[in-house]
Amino acid sequence: MDYQKEIRCTLQDLRRQALSQFMNSFMEILHAEGYTFEDLLEVVTTLASEKPEFESVVKHLENAEKEIRLQSGGLR
Question: For the chain, how many structural domains are there in total?
Answer without folding.
Answer: 2
